[in-house]
Amino acid sequence: MLFEKTNVMMKKALFIDRDGTLIVEPPVTEQVNTLDELEFLPGVIRNLYLIRQHLNFELVMVSNQDGLGTPSYPKENFDRVQGKMLKILENEGITFNDILIDTSTKEHPLPSRKPGTGLLKKYLSGDYDLSLCYVIGDRLTDVELAKNLGCKAIWLNSPDNRPLLEEKQLTSTCVLITPHWDEIFPFLALPYRTAEVTRKTKETDVYVKVALAYSGQCEVSTGIGFFDHMLEQIGRHAEIDLVIKTRGDIQVDEHHTIEDTALALGEAIHKAIGSKAGMNRYGFVLPMDETVAKAAIDFGGRPSLIWKVKFKREKIGDMPAEMFYHFFKSLCDAARCNLYIECDRGNEHHMAEAIFKAFARALKMAIRRDPLNKQLPSTKGML
Ligand SMILES: [Mg+2]
Q1: Residue 15: which pLDDT band, with cuts at 50, 70 and 90?
Q2: What is the pLDDT of residues 87-116, one digit of tens each?
Q3: For residue 35, pLDDT beyond 90
Q4: Where are the beta strands (DSSP E) in the chain?
Q5: How far is the CA of 137 from the centre of ligand 1 (A)?
Q6: What secondary structure letter does DSSP report for 42?
Q7: Could you give the CA distance from residue 223 to residue 272 in angstroms, rounded to a whole number?
C-alpha cells in the first residue's frame, strides 16, 4: 500500500456520473440500450483502479436514467448493460460502495434527479467530510450537484467550456476541468499547490499568485515591458499559472520593481511547494538557438546562485542587463533553492529569453511530483 489509509472518523467519497463519464453516451438517444453500445471512456479503468487501490475514497455511482422502466427505456436493456459494465470493472479490482439511479425525467423531475440531492441524504448526515468529496461528471448538472452537496467538482469536459461555469456561477465549485481521466488520479492524489504573496513597501506594491498546475496561464504587469515578457516565459515554459502585479517606483529606476517582484515570486514558489514529498528535486535543460543557456535547480532548502552570464549591452529592451543577475539572486534567496545559470554568447535578447526559458523548464521538472511516490527526495529525511 503506497498511500497510508487513515483512521479518521469522517469518510470521503467520489460521486461519479455514469453516461459520458464512465461509459460513452450515445449522442442521440442518450441511452446505452445494447452491449454493442457499451464502451468505456479512455483511461477510466486504469485511473479508477489507482483511485481504488491507493486513495481512501468511497466510490458512489450517481446517474440520471430518464424514464428507466418505461417502454421508451426497458429495464432489461439497462440491467444487461449495467451488469456487464460492473462485471468488467469488478474484474479489474474496481467496485462501487453505492449505486444510486434516478429514473425521473427532465420534464417531470423528482428531488432525486441530479442536480437534486434526494438520493444522497446519507452523505449529508455528518459522517462524510464533504470538503474532501468530489463529484466527477461530464454535465453542468454534475457540477451543480457538487455545489448543492457542498463538495467540489471535477468536470470531464473541455477547458474551452470554462465560460459556461462562469455563466452559472460554478467557477469556485469546479476545481478541475479536463477531458482526460489520466489527469484525475494525479489530481486526487496530489492536490493543487497554490500560494499568494503580497509585499508592500514605500518603494513597491507587489502581488504574486502561483498555482503549480499545468496550464501556463499568465497575467503579468510590472510596468517594465521586457521584464513582463521574461516573467511570462517562466509561466508558459514551467507550465505554472502565474499572476504578478507590481507597481513600483520606476520613476527612480527599475531596481526595486525587479528585486521585489523576484522576492515575492520566490516566496510564493517556496510556499506553494510546501512539502517536498514525491517531488522531483532536481531539473535541468539545454535549449539552443544561436545561443545556449543552461539552468539547473535544486530545491534543497539552501539558497545559492552560480551565475555564468556575460551581457555586453547595458539594457535589453527597457530592462537593465545587470538586473537579470539580481532578479535570479533575489528569487533563489526567497525560494530557498540552488540555481546554476550559464549563457555567455549570442544575440542578447535571445540570451535573456533563453535564460528565462531554461530556468522555467528546469523549474517545471523540479516541481513535478510522482503521485505513486510520497517519499522525500533526500537521504537525510528532511529538506
Ligand atoms: Mg453524464
Answers
A1: very high
A2: 999 999 999 999 999 999 999 999 999 999
A3: yes
A4: 13-16, 58-64, 98-102, 134-137, 152-156, 174-178, 194-200, 204-211, 218-221, 241-248, 282-285, 294-298, 304-309, 315-316, 319-320, 338-343
A5: 6
A6: T
A7: 25
Q: Note the pLDDT tens digit of each residue in 143-188.
A: 999 999 999 999 999 989 989 999 999 998 998 999 999 999 988 9
125 alpha carbon to ligand 1 midpoint, in Å? 26
For residue 195, CA distances in Å to 36, 201, 264 come to 48, 20, 11
**Does the annotation count 17 as an active-site position?**
yes
Q: How far is the CA of 18 from the centre of ligand 1 (A)?
A: 6
Q: Which residues are close to ligand 1, an ion, with C-beta < 5 A?
A: 17, 19-20, 138
Please give the mean pLDDT across all residues of the chain. 90
Cis check: omega of the bond before 42, within 30 degrees of 0: no
- Please list, in sequence order, all residues whose beta carbon lies within 8 angstroms of the beta carbon of residue 91, skipping any fewer than 6 positions away: none
Side chain identity at residue 219, one-letter code = E
Q: Indicate the pairing of strand 13-16 with strand 134-137.
A: parallel
Grid cell of 254 as nine digits? 527599475
Q: What pLDDT score does 7 carry?
A: 41
Q: Is the pLDDT of residue 225 over 70?
A: yes
Could you please report the per-residue DSSP string of 168-180? TT-TTTEEEEES-
How many Å apart are CA 81 and CA 197, to the nearest integer? 52
Q: How far is the CA of 343 from the centre of ligand 1 (A)?
A: 52
User: In 3D, which of 380, 375, 372 has the Cα closest to residue 47?
Assistant: 372
pLDDT for residue 1: 32
